[in-house]
Amino acid sequence: MDSSNEPPEFLSLEDRFARYAPEGEVSLNQAVQMISGAIAYCRAQSIEGMLADVRQLYGFPHPTVVDRYWFIRKWAEDARGQVVLALIQRPEMIDSEQIGVTIASNAGLMTNVFESETDARTWLTANLSK
Predict the structure, then answer these.
(1) How far apart are the first and last CA of the chain?
(2) Domains of the chain, with CATH numbers?
(3) What are 47-61's pLDDT values in tens digits?
(4) CA distance 75 to 2
(5) Which of 35, 34, 41 shows the shortest CA–CA distance to 4?
(6) Nearest Cα to Cα of residue 35 among 60, 58, 1
(7) Per-residue model confidence as pLDDT tens digits over 60-102
(8) pTM for this structure?
(9) 20 to 30 A Cα–Cα from 63, which one of 11, 26, 56, 71?
């Protein structure tokens, strides 16, 4: 996925941010690349925030800390400090210590992970510039 003018599949534009809700059976690498493409698109189109609902992606095991480090650093690189990311994930996939949020912060990516869309939307809109 490049950062062309065509939005990625599963991405829709809302009032203040993009909503990305991919679905399907994919590998972890494919899931990471899909989200990376959506982040790059948002950055290229000057869309400041992205709500990524990834609850419908499956086919890969619970990510390890090393996996999380790898993909979060990748997303931080794609965002370049220009896209705020709220993730919605199934509870069993969320690390209870939220190590990914710490990794993201250290890499310059403002992100958080949620079980509910309502909470994710509230956090995202609160963290977008006015």
Answers:
(1) 30
(2) 11-126 (3.30.750.24)
(3) 999 999 999 999 999
(4) 14
(5) 41
(6) 1
(7) 999 999 999 999 999 999 999 999 999 999 999 998 899 999 9
(8) 0.93
(9) 11
User: How far is it, in rounded angstroms, from Cα 83 to Cα 76?
Assistant: 9
Structure-block tokens of residue 54: 């990834």
CB contact set of 8 (below 8 Å; sequence gap of 6+): 1, 20, 34, 37, 38, 41
Q: Which two tokens stand for residue 26?
A: 């994919």
pLDDT at res. 5: 79
Q: How far is CA 50 from the centre of its chain?
A: 7
DSSP string, 64-76: PHHHHHHHHHHHH
Query: Which residues are within 8 A (CB) of 73 and not within 5 positions of it... i.e. 6 or more apart?
Result: 103, 107
pLDDT at 110: 97
Per-residue confidence (pLDDT) for residue 130, from 0 to 100: 67
**Half-sphere exposure in the Cβ direction for 12 (13 Å, CA):** 6
